[in-house]
Design a protein that fits this description.
Helices cover 44% and strands 18% of the residues. It has 219 residues and is an alpha/beta fold. A hairpin with a 2-residue loop joins strand 3 and strand 4.
Length: 219
């Protein structure tokens, strides 16, 4: 029997200002994923954005006491229960922000196993774009998530840029990342399945998903 529950995309935005370019990037990525999912299958798609700036005090208290307040528990449950995750941080001192790291320190290191994740970051200069590869991708690999091939970095100059004949502009990178997330989510939910095979299922169970990720990289 096919699952008729809505597909859930959760975006975590660690921006500190309001309005925030980090939140804007999270919204754009979530919108691209929702559009691609809506075009590719018949189930309803729900999008939730978790703004960490609103949870900063709760995160600090939880780190000290070990007991999450209700709002933080709801956010953690949303992240771990999502079909697809988008994680966006501003760049501070050539890495993700302390608030971003503190939040994901509270996520159990098996809770994101097999979950498809798009990583993204914002910064004032393109020079910090490697934060995606040397900081964020290893973090989510440790959490056993499946980090999708296309990551998105938005420097100040990228907003409004459409790219040129040699490079992709920010809108096209957002669409590509959203499409990859949608494809991965649909792969996890085919025939009513609700999770990606893991190492506990044996090597044979991992082959189809590994091939899907290979196809994503080629495409």
């Amino acid at each position: 029997m096919f699952d008729t529950a809505p597909l859930k995309i959760v975006a975590v935005a660690a921006g500190l200002s309001s309005p925030s370019s980090t939140r804007l990037l999270a919204d754009r990525l979530a919108g691209a994923a929702r559009e691609a999912l809506a075009a590719g299958q018949d189930r309803r798609v729900e999008v939730e954005v978790v703004e960490l700036r609103d949870l900063a005090v709760d995160i600090a208290n939880h780190l000290v006491t070990g007991f999450p307040p209700a709002g933080l528990r709801k956010a953690l449950d949303a992240v771990t229960g999502a079909d697809g995750l988008i994680a966006v941080t501003p760049v501070f001192t050539a890495s993700y922000s302390g608030l971003f790291k503190s939040f994901f320190d509270l996520v159990d290191n098996t809770a994101l196993t097999g979950k498809p994740v798009v990583i993204a970051a914002t910064g004032g200069t393109p020079r910090h774009s490697l934060v995606l590869e040397h900081a964020m991708r290893p973090l989510f690999a440790y959490l056993r998530a499946v980090v999708l091939p296309t990551s998105v970095y938005a420097a100040s100059e990228d907003w409004g840029s459409q790219g040129d004949e040699y490079t992709e502009g920010l809108p096209s990178r957002i669409r590509r990342a959203g499409g990859e997330l949608a494809s991965a989510v649909m792969g996890r939910t085919v025939s009513g399945a609700t999770r990606t095979p893991t190492l506990d299922d044996g090597e044979d169970a991992l082959v189809p998903f590994a091939q899907q990720l290979a196809d994503l990289r080629v495409g």
